[in-house]
Write a structure and sequence with these properties.
Helices cover 32% and strands 26% of the residues. By secondary structure, the protein is of the alpha/beta class. Helix 2 crosses helix 7. It is globular, with a radius of gyration of 19 Å.
Amino acid sequence: MSLIKICVSGTICFLSATSAFAADTLAKIQKTGTIVIGHRTSSQPISYVVNGHPVGYAIDICNDVATEIKKELHLPNLRIVYKAVTPTDRFALLKSGQIDMECGTSTHSVLRNNEVDFSTNYYMAEIRMAVKKTSNIKDIDDLDNRRVVTTAGVIADKYLKRTVRGHDLNVHKLYGRDHAESFSLLATGKADAFVGADSTLAGLIATSGHPQDYKIVGEVLSTDPYAILLPNNDSKMKAVADKVVTNLWRSGKMDQLYKKWFLSPIQPHNVSLNMELNKANRMLRARPTDAGN
């Protein structure tokens, strides 16, 4: 295996692994005339479904990637197919070629670099917890002997377990199959807290129909970079994705997308998350990077 240097937008460079078995997703797309985009169903406002159609911050970004691929491959009639994925099946679907990239809330963890690639980061998520306002839960220590849900297959569960051990708490763990099920456990009183990314928690609360019943509380357990999930060792596909995401940051269009999805009313209930850009995202805007945590 060797490393090659890929530069986009003139100055930002990345080291990408290549091998004799490197993937060539662009060649596959060229041959089939189709790109398959994996998406989430309940990761508001980043990737979710309204009236059967995927929408969200990441979906807009990935549509720009598809447009760039259409231009680079000279495929004006490129067909875009969307396929729903979950935190537990997204990696398998990408490795098997059933999706060409995933546009959701996938954390770029360096441990995952052995099996998948990631684009330049497009969001920095803060891992916190959502509770009902009537719960009297304000911080991590209040979770002792409480029922806490995380979504199966997400990295937030690792941070919760680490924090629980550090605080010597007795927590009853529950797992939702997806974010919608996790939130449902909180909403129906089967869980006392839902630990996850701030954007997902805020999005589910805003679109719940009863946003006044919930709040996001507690310390930040981790700050995680979100990026487009890409096939491993596919330097050409990564170069296109990096170019698009970096240009979105540099052109100011990413600010417009942030305003659209985090500061304005969103479907289906036309409620705004009112999430101002946090410090980590301001740093990412100033210096776009594909670094994992």
